[in-house]
Amino acid sequence: MPCYRLDGLTPVIHPSAYVHPSAVLIGDVIIGANCYVGPLAALRGDLGRIVMEEGANLQDTCVMHGFPGGDTVIERNGHIGHGAVIHGCRIGEDALVGMNAVVMDGAHIAPRSIVAATAFVKAGFQCPEQSLVVGAPAVVKRPLSDEELAWKRRGTAEYHRLTQRCMAGLVECAPLSAAEPQRPRMGDSGVRPKAEGGA
């Protein structure tokens, strides 16, 4: 993967984390245990520190960056959807940021909260735990239900399993010229290995 030391600081990736080969890591980046970093994600620790805590996922084309001297953090089991931008902020434990959302500097998304897809979270924003955050600019719409939180946790567990699947069996290959007869689907027996000790 493109991984770059800058000013003597080398990115750190826990051995149990999966980082896609096309993701880019620069400088002061720390990726914890069982994390997933998707294709084309950019983690730029060239000004501030970038931290992904245990079990967090950062999906394809996401960006993490921050201002000098600050930390940009995704706490334990944080879940960042496709194309989101996380800049100089803190995403709380077990929180979710939806696809193409933007969370700005000094914002704190509280634990067990969900930021809706395409939301724009202004600098310095705060919310109570287990909140639904929507809009541009984003506001707290209401508390999250336990059912909505359970839905989020199922999605994050799927990324925990994907981390293990990619570690065990993602292999670069040449494409086929045509689909096989009776081509199986992901999830069919023998296609998708069951994660051990699943979350």
UniProtKB/TrEMBL annotation:
Keywords: Hydrolase. The keyword Hydrolase applies. The keyword Hydrolase applies. Residues 182-199 have a biased composition (Basic and acidic residues). Pfam families: Hexapep (PF00132). InterPro entries: Hexapep, PaaY, Transf_Hexapept/Carb_Anhydrase, Trimer_LpxA-like_sf. It comes from the Bacteria. GO terms for molecular function: hydrolase activity. It is an enzyme of class 3 (hydrolase). Its EC number is 3.1.2.-. Residues 179-199 are annotated as: Disordered. This is Phenylacetic acid degradation protein PaaY.
